[in-house]
Amino acid sequence: MSDTPVATPVSFAEFPAVTTAEWQARLARDLKGQDPATLRWHLPDGFNVEPFYHREALAALGTLPTPLPHPQVPWLNVPTLTVEAGDGRNQIDLAAAALRNGADGIHFVLPDAPTFAVHYLAEQLPLARTYVGYTVTAGAADLLSQLVDAAPGTALRGFMRFRSAGGPEGAATADHRDELRRCVSLTTGMPDFRALAVNAAFFGDRGATATQQIAFALNAAAALLADVPSEEISAAQVAGALHVHVAVGPSYFLEIAKLRALRRLWATLLHGFGLPEALNGQLRIHAATSSWTQTTLDSHTNLLRHTTEAMSAVLGGADSLSVAPFDSLYAEPNDFSGRLARNLSVLLREESGLGQVQDPAAGSYYLETLTDQLAREAWVHFQRMEAAGGLPQVRGLMQEEIKEAATETFRRIASGQQVVVGTNRFQNRGEQFSFHPKKLLRSASFDVTRATYPTEVLRLATALHFERRERKSKRAAVVLLGTNTNQIILESFLNTLLPHERPEMAASHPKGTVSLLYSSPEEATLMYATPEQFQRFARFIYQIPTEKQLFIPPTLLSSDMPTLQEAVRVFGFQEMKVQGYTTEQVLDRLQGR
To answer: Which of 434, 419, 130, 200 is nearest to 293 (CA)?
Structure first.
């Protein structure tokens, strides 16, 4: 039609180029004399992120960044279902429903794999077409054998993750070498199934920095590549059977760069083992929203965190993605939160169009530089661990480094330096909990490894204390706040006072002790004890016989007041004192009362 407007091509020449010097001049003008260095962001990984990056940033890398191997586009939307007990028929039915409503695959977590209804699974979910992942703690090869028998002649799709107790894959390879070799043998000729896992999420969900997560994942992969090959199974077969599980946090650009750096270093690792270059592009990354950053308080804010985390995962090149329901920390699986979690990938893929692009971060001055910095730091860290003996020898060293990083995060959250919306900033003081705090604190499934746990448990314990006082209950309680948490509580409390009101405070308790809150209708007292003292105390309160070696105390222990008061005295708990303030005044301040 004659009146149809004709689009005028846009020429980049129409926009004058802006030099680095011009950006710096504009920055200095806008800051009005303030040092631009104050805008630098110092990462826990040990390096700084600059306020802005220009084209010279790519030149500083030495060579143009190597394009990343193409991940699957679009990524697979893979919800996670845990089979707590029984044969899992109910979870299989839930999986079938999810696949009819937006999911592309399913990840089953199986604490008791031998009881899983494999034949029912094969009936409900055609294994030739359905992407299914399995996480087991034992019997990985037997489960794979059953799956192969249940679908004869079928090439399985998905992955197997054999999670040994208390450590990442690769930490005890020698104990499971034959099992892992069977897994590789059973899935030979199945290019869409990964029989071996590197669990980087083990580190990320415990507070490791991005650099540590990448480095330790490479250490685990190196252990598997060194230990699993045999006369019948080559190192190339092992590499082709590996995939990586990654936990993705809410630091948007950093997490994008983390996945990109991991892919880049994977190629470097395989080259170090003398493996064919063609294997570099076969790495599969399964990403999941991080439990480390998930919160119990104001739990709908998890929807925002999960959106950011999911975007980072897919822009960073994840092949599959699991998004946790926003209420998974305290609620049973339900249709509402499960649907929201499942639909997040659908929205990003279909409405945001992220399923139409590959490696959209390529060429970004900022992201290419950040990817390069993470890769360099992680490779140095990886080499240092290998020089110290590699896994499993350095397992203790890894745990110490992660503990240090996690403790620093606890401190930053408690002091308000690191904002967690709904937990330490913009709290909903009138929040009506969707759970019973007492039951949650007593639950063995309550995740105590998260970044916000010390802050959350103090708030929940305080709420219970004030409730107990108002009701004039005849019972008292001791709540486990965590290791070395009293110092964090002190710093958080001092930040509520004006500078001239703050007392001089020394360390609140010896290093390595656990922090406790004793609460009765009459008083509340912050205390500390050694882990051994608390263990003996808990066994006494719950009358656990000494011959029962394995006993994990709940977060909340309660009894009648005389019994609890006497037990606290006998087992040697010490009071943590704040000069000039009672514990109740400290709690009032922290609660904003």
So the answer is: 419
**Given this model, what pLDDT does residue 321 score?**
98
- pTM (2 decimals)? 0.89
Tokens of 537: 């105390």
Residue 147 burial class via C-beta count within 10 angstroms: exposed 0-12, middle 13-18, buried 19 and up:
buried
Domain boundary assignment for the chain:
76-387, 437-590
Residue 159: how many CB atoms within 10 A of its CB?
28
SS3 state of residue 107? strand
Contacts of 19 (CB under 8 A, 6+ apart): 54
Beta strands, E only, 450-560: 475-483, 514-519, 524-529, 556-560
- Strand 524-529 to 284-289 pairing: unpaired
Nearest to 119 by CA among 145, 146, 83, 82: 146
Tell me the C-alpha distance between 491 and 461, whole Å: 18
Q: What is the pLDDT of residues 391-428, one digit of tens each?
A: 989 999 999 999 999 988 988 887 788 889 988 888 88
Residues 55-63: contacts with CB under 8 Å, at least 24 apart: 55/365, 56/20, 57/365, 57/366, 57/368, 57/369, 58/363, 58/365, 58/368, 58/369, 60/369, 61/368, 61/369, 61/372
Query: What's phi and psi for 24, nearest 5 deg?
Result: -65, -40
For residue 147, is it left (φ>0), alpha (ψ between -120 and 50) or beta? Answer: alpha
Nearest-angstrom CA–CA distance, 127 and 184: 18
Q: Which two tokens stand for residue 156?
A: 């399985």
The Cα angle at residue 455 between residues 452 and 456, in degrees rounded to 5 = 80
- The CATH H-level superfamily of 76-387 is Methylmalonyl-CoA mutase (3.20.20.240)
List the chain residues with pLDDT less than 70: 1-12, 63-73, 165-172, 484, 505-508, 591-593
Question: Environment class of residue 320 by beta-carbon count within 10 Å: exposed (0-12), middle (13-18) or buried (19+)?
Answer: buried
Q: Alpha-carbon distance 386 to 268, whole Å?
A: 15
- How many whole angstroms separate alpha carbon 378 and alpha carbon 237? 25
Which amino acid is it at 336? F
Return the biggest CA–CA distance within the chain. Answer: 94
Q: What is the pLDDT of residue 4?
A: 64
